[in-house]
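Protocol step 6 of 9: fold each sequence in the batch and record its structure tokens directly after the sequence line. For illustration, a two-sequence batch is reproduced in full.

Sequence one:
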Amino acid sequence: MSARERNEAPFGVAVHRQLKLIHQMLRNDLTVCRELAADVATGAPSAHVADRLAELQANSPLWNLQINCLYHCRIVHMHHHGEDADMFPALRRSNPELGVVVDRLESDHRAISVLLDNVESLARKLDDSTTSAERDSLVIALRDLGTRLLEHLAFEEENIAATMRSWATWPA
């Protein structure tokens, strides 16, 4: 089946690809955060965690834009704000049938925001004197964030792709 038969336009395909690229970068960095959480849970020294963060800064496109892993949370916040302010209204205008989907995505953003804030708060407290219980709290917070964020990204990509890929221009 051709792009025309699928009702796809080059602009929409490009916008959708960009969204998926950003989502993949978020997934990649989340994998590293999960690995760091496992290191933290086993009592890794803060120097080891700092070395892993430096590695992220050197190797990840998203993390190169930021100073350390705490700012990953800020990137997700910013990405979701952009979707809430620009992309979701465009989806509603171009396909009103997506209203329920967009409502869920907006609700996900609010829930993920709370999880991001919790991870940031716990991560700021991490040092060599952090107790095992405090480390466990961070590990659980990162796990919960990861689970919810990955579910959200998959749901978003699956449910808005056809509409987004049909855009010839940004919906007015």
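Sequence two, same batch, same settings:
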Amino acid sequence: MLSSSLREVWTITLVLLLALSTACQTATSGAADESALRKLDNEWSKAVGAKDVEKTMSYYADDALVMLPNIPTLTGKDSIRTVWKSLLEAPGFAGGWNATKVEVSGDLAYVTGSYEITETDDSGKPMTDKGKYIKNWKKQSDGSWKCVADMFSSDLSLAPFSEK
């Protein structure tokens, strides 16, 4: 029979080994999730560059929200699809983005990066916008990741305000 002090040492050792094993599994899972999110974000950018509306929409959760400059928040895939369709079908549209940071915490994550898009203005002249974005992702019950909130802002300065 083990003495009570030896039993305590073994118990503490087993608890520490279990904690270390759990920490290693969590770190491995976090790295795998980070890699998966970088890949998803890159594929999503390529879908936008290819002007594929349905593939673009496939990255959103059903109840996602999108916050674009100068318009009210879009909620749900129908309103989000309408905006993407309009943007991707616009004359002269080209663009995409690159992730610079991915942070994962359990079933939630965010991806930040920079984007560049080009559109044609009303006079037919190309105009390019550059800026930054943040996308919040949530792991779904099937283990896949879906974007639940998407927001971007331009780095271009606003046109001067003029009063009439």
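Proceed to step 7 once all outputs are recorded. Observation for sequence two: The chain has one domain: 4-154.
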